[in-house]
Amino acid sequence: MSGKLTWRYRRAISIAQRLRSSVALRGWRGTVSRISQEFASRPEVDDSLSLLPLDMAFEPFALPSSEQPRISLVIPVYGKLEYTLACLRSIAANPPTDAFEVIVVDDASPDDSVDTLIRVSGLRVLRNASNLGFVGSCNAGAAAAHGEFLVFLNNDTQVLPGWTEELLRCFELRADCGIAGSQLVYPDGRLQEAGAWVFADASAWNIGRFDSRSDPAVRYARKVDYVSGASLAIRRTVFTELGGFDLRFAPGYYEDTDLAFAARAAGYSVWYVPTSVVVHAEGVSSNGSMDTGMKRFQAINRKKLADKWREALAAQPAVGTALAEVAKARRRGTILVVDVATPDASRDSGSLRLISMMRLLVEDGWHVVFAPDDGRADDGAIRELGRLGIEVIVRPWVDGVPSWLLRFAEDLDAAILSRHMVASQYTSFVRRYAPGAKVIFDTVDLHFLREERAAERAGNASLARQAATTREQELRLIAGADTTFVVSDYERDLLSRLMPSANVDLLSNIHEVYGRTGGHEGRRDLLFVGGFGHPPNADAMNWMASEILPELRRVVPGANILVAGDVPEGNRRLLSDAGLHMLGRVPDLEPLMSSSLASIAPLRFGAGVKGKINMAMSHGLPVIGSTVAVEGMRLENGVDVLVADTADAFAAAYLRLVRDASLWASLSDHAVENVRAHFSAEAARDALRRAIL
To answer: What's the N-to-C CA distance of the chain in angstroms?
Structure first.
């Protein structure tokens, strides 16, 4: 018999043994689905897990613990020393960046666990006088903890880098987060759990069980009914407020489900965090059949949960409800967002705006699905967007937007199509397959306006014809959309004259207000932010190199212009030779914002609101910009910004800021207030709500 057939034969025997209990716990629909998953092909071995071996000879090691921890890791153990040591070694190899302590609660283990564990430096070992079970041991560990956050962790786990950081970030991102749980993975790389749903009879289903953990469908954060106690984070004060794990569920099973129900009853939410990954050898600490040993409490405690939460369970889906319908019922609705490429906040202001828009939609309860028109998104981008609760559909998982619409059109409430080249492709698909969905055309900026200005500046008839084609296309899309977003008052006023019957709304750049760090003293450099791939930026860089920088150095010898953004190597070399300091893409601009004298924006054509100006102003960095650059941003020359349209005017404005600290401080203060008043998340949220509801 082949290895594959032998494995399937063993699987069949195991399933047959569990079938009766499985039906009782899940119903026939769930059982059939579970059998299908059991027989599904296993994924290839995932070498990225880098698991520690269980048969390592023990040598004393240390955990970098703190006497003033922010995090208390609580690990209940009952024997299985080899798993406990592997778990602790994984923590030592991937320690939290926050101060932490590790508390192992030995539940009267039948082996020599304690004698060995006390030789691990930095580990706090508590020993129960008698066997309290998982529930009692977790409560005992929590009572002894000092950290702001409790993270309960099974001893048959191994943690991956960043697992606690991602759990805690969930609390930072979501004020109502009460419980956060990790993505649990089998040692062979299959997904074990992406949170769980609970049905009306108190039976439960682990989301994504046996699926690929690389599938973007399980890589976005979401509210769930509960997360497993195998890796569960909660504020210590909230754990105390909820009364800890209910002893009615001792020795174990359903205590994590009960805690999640208690958290929601108290006004908190429960979140699955896909960016926190923990490998879990499920069943090691609770072996036995469903009728004997520890596992028998699964059925016993399910009945207890059904009795305790009878009223809350009445609102849960009926047994047998399709899993897709369960997930759908947990959402306010679905919003599809399409742009030419996956947004990258470090790349351009349009990306930052789009990410902020999607985050606001998630905060309002929508399931947001993002589709890049080019069908590509790297692992880092899926991770970043997933952290915010955004599902990314890319190949090979989904074969394009039309394919997705064929499957999910009936769930769609609205489609936000960014830029005219995207909207022109997909508006008809949305109208055809999801006629009840709102079509929202997000111009990002009016491309025809930018192209007309570029053609006029260049005196190029071919560019003028292209601008005319773009104008016709954009105006046709605006006429056919339910709502059109523009980013500036200037563009909204222009469209009100060109198309008075169109529904045009203002949704400008969205920025967090940081405020300035430090004062005027010691600042001398000017900062330009932007990539060479955007024609107005390329023109501005060439102008700075050829005319503006020489004029600056004429009035202030040693003046520098720093350029942060992607520039092709050939252009980069030429601009650098001309004196510009080329920094390339800078992931974190804050250090530059806090050390530069001002932001420079010498744009000679373009359209829309300029993110480089908003970003600088949000940090309290004064701006010297052209008339085109500050257009439509409600900025007053000499009060909020300094406006310059010639090389000598830029030099004069720069000299004023070098010499006048009080002017610099006044511009800084007004810049921050302008962003707060006109480019806040609240204004954007209102526009989104008007368009969708």
So the answer is: 60
Q: How many CB atoms lie within 10 A of CB 685?
A: 18
Query: CA-to-CA distance for 404 and 226, rounded, in angstroms?
Result: 28
Instruction: For 639-653, give the secondary structure using H, E and C.
Output: CCEEECCCHHHHHHH
Q: DSSP character for 410?
A: G
Rounded alpha-carbon distances, angstroms, from residue 257 to 73, 143, 237, 304, 324: 20, 20, 19, 11, 21
Give the span between the Cα atoms of 387 and 276, in whole angstroms: 10
The answer to whether the beta carbons of residues 581 and 562 sit under 8 Å apart is yes
Please report, for residues 308, 518, 634, 671, the alpha-carbon distance to residue 616 in angstroms, rounded to integers and kept in the order given.
54, 14, 15, 8
Q: Which amino acid is at 248?
A: R
Distance CA 622, CA 643 (A): 11
Q: How would you classify the pairing of strands 204-206 and 123-127?
A: unpaired
Measured from the Cβ of residue 16, the count of other Cβ atoms closer than 10 Å reads 10
| Residue from 441, 100, 46 nearest 277 by CA | 46
Q: Phi first, then psi: give them for residue 645, nearest 5 degrees.
A: -130, 5
Contact status, residue 197 vs residue 207, Cβ threshold 8 Å: yes
- Listing DSSP states for 71-114 in one string gives EEEEEEE-S-HHHHHHHHHHHHHS--SS-EEEEEEE---SSSHH
392, 385 Cβ separation under 8 angstroms? yes
Q: How far, rounded to the nearest angstrom, does the alpha carbon of residue 399 sit from its chain's CA centroid?
A: 23
Mean pLDDT calculated for residue range 475-480: 97
Q: Taking the model in full, what pTM does it have?
A: 0.81
Residues 6+ apart with CB under 8 A from 43: 188, 189, 190, 212
Whether 35 shows a pLDDT value over 60: the answer reads: no
Closest CA to 583 of 602, 556, 563: 563
What number of helices (H) and strands (E) belong to the chain?
A: 26, 25
Identify the bridge partners of residue 243 per DSSP, sorted by sequence position: none
Q: What is the maximal distance between C-alpha atoms in the chain?
A: 88
Confidence of residue 50 (pLDDT cuts 50, 70, 90): confident
Q: What's the pLDDT tens digit per position in 99-120?
A: 999 999 999 998 888 999 999 9
Tokens 């889906």 correspond to what residue? 317
Residue 12 pLDDT greater than 50, yes or no: no
3-state secondary structure of 521: coil
**How many alpha carbons lie under 13 Å from residue 19 in its C-beta half-sphere?**
10
- CA geometry: angle 386, 387, 393, nearest 5 deg: 5
- Residue 503, C-beta contacts closer than 8 angstroms, at least 6 positions apart: 481, 482, 483, 484
User: Residue 415 phi/psi, 5° resolution?
Assistant: -125, 125
Characterize the bridge pairing of strands 581-584 and 561-564.
parallel
Query: In this structure, are residues 564 and 592 in contact, taking their beta carbons and an 8 Å threshold?
Result: yes
b/e 19-46 (16+ beta carbons within 10 angstroms → b): eebbeebbbeebbebbbeeeeeeebeeb
Q: How far apart are CA 543 and CA 600, in angstroms?
A: 12
Residues 6+ apart with CB under 8 A from 349: 509, 610, 611, 612, 614, 615
* Residue 283's pLDDT band (cuts 50, 70, 90): low
Q: What are the respective helix, strand and coil percentages of the chain, to the nearest 5?
A: 45, 20, 35
For residues 185 and 49, the answer to whether their CB atoms sit within 8 Å is yes
H/E element, 325? helix 323-329
Q: Residue 32 and residue 43: Cα distance in Å, rounded?
A: 21
